[in-house]
Design a protein that fits this description.
110 residues; mainly alpha
């Protein structure tokens, strides 16, 4: 599946009664909530003796992806554009791959 195909399919389940601004707010809140659910799974593994449940992480990452698609939709951009721009930013920041020194000494906002 291609990333924009995912976005189009996922947005078929969007609440069509929401205004664009509400879609944006719902998406951002959803990203935070679902990311928190991933954190909770890892926390339980690291600090409470639970087995790391990869299937649950996969499910929650799917929910993160859905909300990412929703936020992108709310600002009228496709996911491929979001991912391309992210890679462009990373290439500028770490042209030779990750380097601790470049991470520590990078300019704010970059």
């Amino acid at each position: 599946m291609q990333i924009n195909e995912y976005q189009n399919l996922a947005m078929k389940t969007l609440n069509k009664n929401l205004k664009k601004e509400d879609v944006l707010i719902n998406g951002v809140m959803g990203l935070c909530g679902e990311s928190g659910e991933v954190i909770d799974i890892v926390k339980k593994h690291l600090h409470q003796g639970h087995q790391l449940n990869k299937e649950d992480i996969i499910k929650e990452l799917g929910d993160v992806a859905w909300y990412l698609a929703e936020v992108a939709y709310a600002i009228d951009v496709d996911l491929e554009t979001v991912l391309i721009k992210n890679i462009e930013k990373l290439k500028k920041r770490f042209p030779n791959g990750f380097e601790v020194a470049k991470s520590i000494n990078r300019e704010e906002g970059k």
